[in-house]
Amino acid sequence: MTAQDTGTIILPDLISTCPFKLECNQEYEIVSAETNAWLTAYGILYSESMTKYNLYWALIYPHASRTRLGNTCDAFTLFFLIDDLLDTSYGKGISDKTKQQLLKNTLDCFQPTGSFKPLTSFAEALRDWWQRMRYSATPHFQERFINSYRIGLETILSLLADKKTCQSVPNLGTYIRIRRKTSFGDIGLAFIEYIFDIVLPDECWSNEALQRLMNCVIDISAFANDIYSFNVEQIHDQYNLITVLMHDDSSLTIQQAMDRAGQMIIDRYNDFERIRREIPSWGKEIDTQVEKYINEATCIVSGNLHWRFEIPKYFGSQIEEVKRARCIKLLSPKTALRGSMIDRKNKEKI
């Protein structure tokens, strides 16, 4: 009898196979309190004890200074809260049209000139954060951040606007290309530049090996999220990597698709180490910065994996059992709702 026959799934072991070590930023508690106070000033209710979004950034940027980590936590905790608010698992009372308006409003936050009218307290806070960043971040970072955010947002808006496309399961290659955009992984990588004052010439950023290396980081984080969130998403008819794999190969069970997705991540670990050796030299000064950038990118991988086991969003009341045995029970809609509750007070503010 297989695990799935008993209504359970064994998660792939992504942590012991990960070649990158885990660290946590020593400024986490101080920065977390400051971010919470900043959100409260805008009337945004947030509980770090429940979601631990600030912990996420402390794990993936363990070497950031207090100021740079604080600016990062402010923005990304907002992005997490907006994502929770509009996610179809939770935001059933919000129409797709309203979601489009609210998402577009966040992009308007980054316009350098002209009038800006925030539709929510989230957008108002995000505008405040961006004005702060315009004076502390390099023009190159600002350009990369806005471009990455715009591409990811436009992809999400396109899916919302096209119901047929949104509900149709794509093939694996198409899904990976879309997922690299909607995961906003490029933004997480761009913040390495900001946090550590890394300035590289265009020749580096356009290098094929470095681009493939960064895709490994984005894919690992996105695929891991899909593995860990599948149990909740499947009862809301949302597709992700597991669904796509089963759609591509109808003979796969859920467990087999999980195993295949896990192997895809392990393959990316190996790809990262191999591609890293293919990075060319641009001279000692630039090479030092490139090495710093790559080393910090590995923290994104390890921090992302461990953080998923620190919050109830993915495993609910099963979290301790999942940590111990990597075994999860397939949820019914009723139990999923209990195990995935978010702060509904934020939802009521729309």
UniProtKB/TrEMBL annotation:
It comes from the Eukaryota. InterPro entries: Isoprenoid_synthase_dom_sf (IPR008949), Terpene_cyclase-like_2 (IPR034686). Its EC number is 4.2.3.-. One of its GO terms (molecular function) is terpene synthase activity. Signal peptide: none annotated. It holds the Pfam family Terpene_syn_C_2. Keywords: Lyase, Magnesium, Metal-binding. The keyword Cell cycle does not apply. One of its GO terms (biological process) is isoprenoid biosynthetic process. Its cofactor is Mg(2+). Belongs to the terpene synthase family. This is Terpene synthase. It comes from Adineta steineri.
